[in-house]
Amino acid sequence: MILPSTVNAECEGFYPQKRCRDEYDPNAKVYYKTSCCLTEVPRDIPAQAQRVNLWDNRINFLPAGIFEDLSQCVSLELQQNSLSSFDKDAFAGLLSLERLSFENNYIYHIEPGTFQYLSQCKQLYLNSNSLTTFGLNAGMFQGLFGCEKLDLSFNKLTSIPAGLFQDLPSCTKLDLDHNEIRFLNRDTFMGLTNLEELYLHSNEIRKLDPSLFATQFALRHITLYGNILTTLSSATFENLPRPLELSLQGNPWNCSSLCWVKHEEQHGTINWLKEVYHTRCTEGGGWRSLGCSDKGEKKTHFHWQWK
Fold it and tell me: Distance of alpha carbon 275 from its chain centroid, rounded?
């Protein structure tokens, strides 16, 4: 079934290499209005649609109640548009939504309570936007009790406000990579009690608080490569389950702080996500030449020497 086109005449030729896909499959209940240069959400989306694809347009705002008739929709794709913000009640009515994607927009601020209607949402993609620390607020993710994956990568975050993730008890995967994060306070991950995978690579992190993962008893996978870390305390990771998967390369390490890591690697309680032998030390040498000996001070603390 082909729906009437609502493409603005002034936008014809805006995507000369792409074709506007304007169709609805009533059997699969999938709606497409992609690469059509739309500036607003169409008003003729069938109420039975379960998957709504509006990506690659020029939609710049979502008014209150724009999706209120789409109670059966489970997937809403809004990536590659011109969105910078949306009304707090824009998502009212999306009672069945499980996946919401805003990848590659210009979103810089989200009001607390905006996602309050999305208790069934399992995946939220806010990556590749213009979010800054000032645009984040406690309560921003209120209502997302069932969210399992949150992607905030490729934004402009320099820190994470305390309590930001307190309404995400079901989240198992959190992407914060490719930001400008410089520090993480001890309350950063408060509420993320079921977190299993954490991506922190390609930031500007200099230090990890010893109590940073105090309540993350399921966290087994952490990427830290491409930061400015110089030391790594065993206390930061002591509450995490084993085996633990880490990536450390691309930091200016003082390798005297990594002997506990090498000891756990030898005992199989730490595994590497990326090639550990690319890890270099400011003292010279690398992971292969790092030798550590247990002097009995603490179970997980070791002196080090170059072989």
Answer: 23
Sign of CA dihedral 67, 71, 72, 74: positive
Paired tokens of 36:
């059509």
Half-sphere exposure of 251 (CA within 13 A, CB side): 27
Residue 259, classed as helix, strand or coil, is: helix
* Closest C-alpha to 191, from 248, 140, 134, 258: 140
Pairing relationship of beta strands 123-125 and 149-151 according to DSSP bridges: parallel
Look up the pTM and report it: 0.90
3-state secondary structure of 57: coil
User: Do residues 225 and 274 touch, judged by C-beta distance below 8 A?
Assistant: yes
pLDDT above 50 (res 1):
no
Tell the residue number behind the tokens 């993962």, with chain if given.
Answer: 213
Identity at 160, one-letter amino acid code? I
Q: How far apart are CA 182 and CA 19, in angstroms?
A: 43
Question: How much is the pLDDT for 208?
Answer: 95
What is the 8-class DSSP label of residue 80?
A: S
